[in-house]
Amino acid sequence: NAMSFAMDSHTSSNRSRDFVLKFYVDKIDTVDAYKLTKVICKQFRGVTEKTGAFAIMGSVDPESFDTLHSFSNAFEMPFVTPWFPEKNTDGEDETHNFAVQMQPQYHHAIVDLILHYDWS
User: Fold this and answer.
1) Reduced to 3 states, what is the DSSP secondary structure of residue 118?
2) Rounded to whole angstroms, what are the CA distances from 99 to 9, 59, 109?
3) Per-residue pLDDT at 92 exceeds 90
4) Which residue has the higher pLDDT, 18 or 114?
5) Beta bridge partners of 81
6) 68: how many CB neighbours lie within 10 A of its CB?
7) Averaged over 12-30, what is the pLDDT?
8) Side-chain half-sphere exposure of 18, counting CA atoms within 13 A
9) Residue 106 CA to chain centroid, in angstroms?
10) Predicted TM-score of the model (pTM)
11) What percent of the chain has pLDDT over 70?
């Protein structure tokens, strides 16, 4: 996949071995907070000495988002996702939010499509 390719490309072009990125994948088919917590802790801890996550990337079920988001904020571990659940953020401290939504803007593509097909 694209993420694996990007990580491999970075590793092969990285001249300094002081900072090496590793790609670990855990597919979680659960909204069970206990099982999710175990997987998150395993990722944070790492599999060997001097390993462990410095960021979590991926999509998450809406029912699991709050659990992952809480861990991300508590441990100041960035969580990068293409999607956030719609919710009211009134009263939340936006300066202490370690979840980042990365989603491409698609409105330019829609305008180009309308112009291309001369839709009115």
Assistant:
1) coil
2) 25, 11, 26
3) no
4) 114
5) 101
6) 23
7) 70
8) 1
9) 20
10) 0.63
11) 81
